[in-house]
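To start, one record:
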Amino acid sequence: MAENPLDRAGGDLEALWLQYKEAVRAGGNPQALYQELVWPALLERWRREPSVYPSPQPFAVSVHTLGTSPEATALAVLGGGAEKVYVLHTAESARFLPRLREDTGKDLYPVEIGKSDVAAIYREVKRLLEKHPDVPVALDLTSGTKAMSAGLAAAGFFFQRFFPKVRVVYVDNEDYDPELRRPRAGTERLVILPNPHEALAEVDALFAKELYGRGEFGKAAGYFGGMVGKTGDQQYLLYKMLAEMYHAWRTLDAQGAVRQGRALLGRLSENAWLQHPLNERRKTLEAQVALLEAVRRFLEARDFGEKAGVYGLAETLLRLSQEVGEGQPVLAALYAYRALELLLQERLALLGRRAEAPGLSPEEEGALREELARILRLSPEKARLGDKLGLLDLLAFLRLKGDPVVGAVPLSELQGLAGVLKARNEALLIHGFRVPTQKEVGQHQGGQDHQNPRGTGSRETPRTPWGSDGPGRPGAPAGGG
């Protein structure tokens, strides 16, 4: 049995290192002497008790890049302790695979890639993580080309977002010998890097800001809430409340939006938060909460005298219609139709009438039939009226009564809108099987331009948060605000 150099040196790697250094100074070959004097002792120590910082972890899988200096990779394999070991190697470094197997005593799963093929590393890491989705995985970037190490690090950072048990690791040293141009034996350790998604709230802030900017307020609120737990910094709680307010608004939960909005304004009034970035947009937030309160009052009372509530709800529906757009034309049409209907019902309420019980006199009914026939391009006897006023009936009745807003719309536009409304009634989510075209949806949306108080000189209502001129990103929520 071959003698272990560590035994010859009394178990002292430092003594072996000095022997090695003297032998090199005497003209010996540094690489050959290292393999003879130092490496067997260092390897034996790591086989018995690898040095891992901050502490050993039970990795089930490890993935390593292999270059032309396999010693560090061997230490990383031993430090990771995984049962399944995948090695990304180049054609050149493949010759070190047998030695790596011998040094570590592990079965290896080699994967050949180009030395600069970063995309191949991304694909392999993705494949391996999908193959082992629920176990701790170590990604070791110690060895290999710069492209290989950088690619594995980038893949690790990205995929940690979806596979939280992934850790990036590398073999470091606490002392480097400049004369021998090597780490001093015995000072090596496997470093397990913390997951930046868990360690730094600022990383989550980037995701939260991205989601917030896309209008995915519910998901953004989840990230902001997680940041409170990670950092203990309550400023993120205020951003969470803001995102929850907008999420409730966007899902038409006026009561929930008001509750979150009031709570947020209350927090912003506390001494501790007077300097919070959201207070820079306080007036905008106050206007939005006031609008939401008006919408809530309207929905509870169903009173079209709550003009601000009607206008705010109609504009919210229009924004939602524009947002879903081409992706969901049926839903876009429903939002736009209901928004237009609300605005017309508000105009009708000014006449003291309600669409569900208009109370038409025989004279009004006859005149309405004739007006409706003109819009539909029918003879009056073919124009049908129900007990309630539908959207076209509302348009015709308001024209009949000289409403200045509806009266300003040319008859040709109303006739075009009539065709669109007929298509709406045949839509998949109403009574039929059609999917509205984008042009038809656009006509629904455009029909409100004449009804919206913005176009008539009436008092402006604050925009929805995802509108083009809304606050967008109050306080620009990000790490540190």
Observations:
- The chain has three domains: 50-193, 201-298, 306-456.
- Confidence is low (pLDDT under 50) at residues 5-10, 453-464, 466-481.
- The beta strands are 52-53, 61-66, 84-89, 108-112, 137-140, 166-173, 176-177, 182-183, 188-192.
- The first strand starts at residue 52 and ends at 53.
